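Please go through the protein record below and explain what the tokens say about the fold. Record follows.
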Amino acid sequence: MGITNSNKEISVNQIACDGSLKVTLALAAEPEISSNPTDIVLVLDRSGSMAGTPLKNMKLAAKTFIDIIDEATDSSQDGNIGSGSRIGIVSFAQSATADTQLITSVADLKAAVDNLSAGGSTNHADAFTKAVELFDPMSTNEKVIVMFTDGKTTSGPPPAPIAAAARASGIVIYCIGLIGADGIDVNVLNDWATEPDSSHVVVTPDEGDLEQIFADLAKNISKPGATNIVIDEVVNPDFAITNVIAPSVGSAVLVNSNTLKWEIDKLGVSGNEGASLEFYIKHIANTSGVKLVNESIDYSDKEGNVVTFQAPTVEVKCGVVVKPEPCPTPVNVEIEGCKDSVVVDAGDVYLESLGRILQLDVTVKNVCPNRRVALAVILTEVDQKGDEFQRGMKTITIPAHHYSGCRDILVKCIKFVLPEDLDVSGGRQNAICNERKFKVRFIAHNIDTDFRCCESQIIV
């Protein structure tokens, strides 16, 4: 099954021009065995050479194998092999015995393993035969044999033809070899096992390795959800990543203001498992519209799962910005090295004197579509008695907008020039740094209207 779900969500669907939002990435994975049932027969060598610690370690390894399959099938070690999978136990020495049928009870499986005792010769052919007989040919479950042995065949017919027939029928065969007192022929194990040998045959001289070998094989058979996950997230250039919260699984690093990398070692290896990552982005452009949050998002893992994420969009409202007065055009001045002075003709300057510039921004509320607005700005200066003196008036036509509803219109950079020789607020005479007090009044109304006055008519 691998990755079972991938999702990308945003916290809001609409933000202001400089607004922020939270992005959540989520993944879920589970072993393939949870959705593709598998019948597994553990074929365990109990010949005389297994007496003592080899048999003890094999029992521990087999029970570990059972526990891992138990958890992989239903996400918990609940004592029952779930999702339609089953395990059977066959043991062999001079002959083979079906210690259990294909069953789901973990307790019964472990009891069968615990009851094994060592003694006798080694009959691999009968072991394969009894294992194959456990499978139901009509079942759609995948079929797997795990053959464990510590030596060479010492009784019975050659096992290779029986193993070959099993493989031909669709049964996958794994071989685990423990190099016992009589040695072991690795080539024989390779011949029995399904190809490639590198992933279906393991040989060790140390019985202490058996638990780990059986555990690794159980994980391989259950086919883990995903390992070595890497997600590269790149947001739209109109946004910047401002904060990354530590993910629930794995680690995330900010590569630059637009890119982050999320890495997860493993997900859904032993059961259904989810992971999530939250991060915040801020809109840094000055344009409105419905915008994709992502520029790109790339996913990869060791298993080659193909994963896609949603492509959420957010509506950005920057409003309508009117700049009736552009900034003055600058005059470029250069002074060459080693010159004490320079004379530059800076051109003409009109109606300016020693003083200051007052710049105002104002928002006109609820301007409806297709309506031009007339805006008047009246500036007065207040003296120490509270009397007001005119300092300027500006009238501005705000162009009509064409959005579907009424909007607030921001009018920026309304400038008034305030010469110091008109200072009536008080303070030192002819000083440029006096405190000055002003009052500003705004008047605004619609220019356009659909109202038409009807003329009176009298008919006699």
About this structure: The longest helix spans residues 53-74. DSSP finds seven helices and 23 strands in the chain. The domain at 322-327+350-446 is CATH 2.60.40 (Immunoglobulin-like). The CA atoms of residues 178 and 204 lie 5 Å apart.
